[in-house]
Write a structure and sequence with these properties.
single chain; 84% helix; mainly alpha; 171 residues
Length: 171
């Protein structure tokens, strides 16, 4: 009886691990799409609203879901506290909150590059860089959708199969 319970637990944990990985593959394109929309909102705030960056980030964070909300809220708080640049506040925010996202290094690199121009150049230059970042994110979204199509179902199946393999090897 104890062996049966152990086998079920191993099989269940393998299956759950596969489903967790599949959920990350599904969440990445959604989060990138939300980030693209955030870039478009930021562009609007800068070009039409003449909104200072801390206020623009705060407004964006109110409209976003987690985990992106935390990234922009944290950056707004860092900028509003004074003494640090927009680049430093964005970098701190990314360091604090990036692990909670399903996004990968290319998306982080895009935000990192964007942080160099935000708050340091004129409005038109910032708008151009934001549009460029949005374009790059659209490319990454397409890559993420391809990965999701390829690996989401495989991850689910592989989790179950690895759990079954472990059960077979142990018993």
């Amino acid at each position: 009886m104890l062996k049966l319970i152990g086998a079920v637990l191993i099989l269940l944990s393998g299956t759950l691990a596969g489903f967790h990985q599949a959920a990350r593959f599904a969440a990445r394109p959604k989060q990138i799409r939300e980030l693209i929309l955030a870039m478009q909102r930021l562009e609007t705030e800068i070009s039409y609203g003449f909104t200072p960056l801390p206020d623009a980030f705060r407004k964006m964070s109110e409209q976003l879901g987690e985990p992106l909300r935390s990234i922009f809220r944290s950056a707004a708080i860092h900028m509003a506290s004074g003494g640090i640049t927009a680049q430093e506040s964005i970098q701190r925010s990314l360091n604090e909150n990036w692990k909670r996202t399903a996004m990968k290094t290319p998306e982080r690199d895009i935000l990192h590059q964007l942080s160099f121009t935000l708050g340091t150049s004129d409005r038109q230059d910032q708008i151009k860089h934001i549009a460029l970042a949005a374009q790059q994110l659209k490319h990454e979204e397409a890559v993420a959708r391809d990965e999701q199509a390829k690996y989401e179902k495989i991850s689910r199946s592989l989790g179950l199969l690895i759990g079954a393999l472990i059960v077979i090897l142990i018993f």
